[in-house]
Amino acid sequence: MKKALKIVLIVFGTIGLLIGILYISGNGYLARGVYCTYLHGKSKPDIDDLSMFHTRKINNGSVTELPRKLKSLSDQDIQLLTSTESEAFLVYKNDSLVSEWYGNPGADTTHWNSFSMAKSAISLLIGCAIHDGKIASLQDPISKYIPWSSKDVTIEQLLHMSSGIPFGESYNSPFGYMAKAYYGNDLKGITKAYKVEQTPGTYWSYEGGNTVLLGMILEAATQKKISNYFEEKIWSKIGTSSPAYWNLDAENGFEKPFTGIYATAKDFGMLGQCILHHGKVNGEVLIDSSYLAQSFEPWTIQDGNNSICDWYGLHWWMGEVDGVKFQSARGMRGQYIVMIPEKNTVVVRIGHQQSKERIKQMPVDLFTYIRMGLAH
């Protein structure tokens, strides 16, 4: 018994020592990362991590209940959704909910992590800030709002992922920018250390640090927390059924602009409905339609594979399925809000897994879900 107790004390003492070393060395975020992933049976961030982070509440307003004209999914569709660990699949057509499927009990009311779909929300807020006169132009140098940043990078270049700042985007590197940004407690300080290394506007590289800078610009320009501005301009006006939450880097801290809006699948669908209708809800213009149109125009520069980037606009993804054009917000593990204007359709998918195979930088399963939506 004494020997067993001694072993336990040694194990916990060693763990405590390692944690202490991590914090002393400035790598305390690693301990938090291990707690949020491996100690919860995960190998990387997942969509059900709301309780693990500090958040800021985003209140909703009046609730809009869209007509329900539900059609059943085929057995093949359900098998696909189940095999990819999907939690929700919704299709809206002609302003009615025509398909609603959930993978588990309670999935309809759970607040799921948007991951990088939040990037598209940041783009919407940039448009709102321009409309409000808080930001003069997409051509403004970012140093106008963040004095220590580069005068050679514009807001538009951040939105197009072409700042020339090599943040790095890998979640598999424990010492990389994304691990520090997601699990650390000083997102602004982490981001400040990165500098321009390539001519801005000449090279497309998808990196969340660009969105962090946009979030800092929004906060400086509006003098409001990002969550509060999002609530005021969008979330409280699009008919959502419940509040949302935004992941913070610390208690009462800074929103992580590149990730972490927690909301229900149906409320993500209401955001998609707003975009589908050119930023207008109940006759009120929430997002300027000309800004949205610009958001869906690709900036055709090269990526790292010497391909012309015709799949990305102002923090929005775009493409075609069987000749039908779509626009999409997209998050890690396969979080999708898809607008298909030609068919007056919105598709939402929430889940734990996505395809590793890509078509123009987009996961193959995205195209599958779009086809499923178009079939309704």
Report a brief summary of the structure.
The protein has 376 residues and is α+β, with helices and mostly antiparallel strands. It has one domain (44-374): DD-peptidase/beta-lactamase superfamily (Beta-lactamase).
Classify the secondary structure makeup into a structural class: alpha+beta
In the CATH hierarchy, what is the architecture at level 2?
Answer: 3-Layer(aba) Sandwich
Share in helix = 25-40%
How do the strands line up in the largest sheet? 3-2-12-11-10-9
What spatial form do the alpha-carbon principal axes imply?
globular
Biggest beta sheet attributes: 6 strands, antiparallel
Poorly predicted sequence stretches spanning 5 or more consecutive residues = 8-22
Describe this structure in words.
- With 376 residues, the chain is α+β, with helices and mostly antiparallel strands.
- It has one domain (44-374): Beta-lactamase (3-Layer(aba) Sandwich), CATH 3.40.710.10.
- It contains 12 helices and 14 strands.
- The protein has helices spanning 2-24, 28-36, 75-83, 117-131, 155-159, 177-183, 187-192, 209-222, 226-233, 265-276, 289-295, 364-374; strands at 55-58, 86-93, 96-102, 112-113, 244-247, 261-263, 280-281, 284-285, 317-321, 324-331, 335-340, 345-351, 358-359, 362-363.
- It has a 6-stranded antiparallel β-sheet with strand order 3-2-12-11-10-9, with helices on both faces.
- The longest helix is centred in the N-terminal third of the chain and has 23 residues, at 2-24.
- The protein is globular, with a radius of gyration of 21 Å.
- Mean pLDDT is 92; it is low at 8-22.
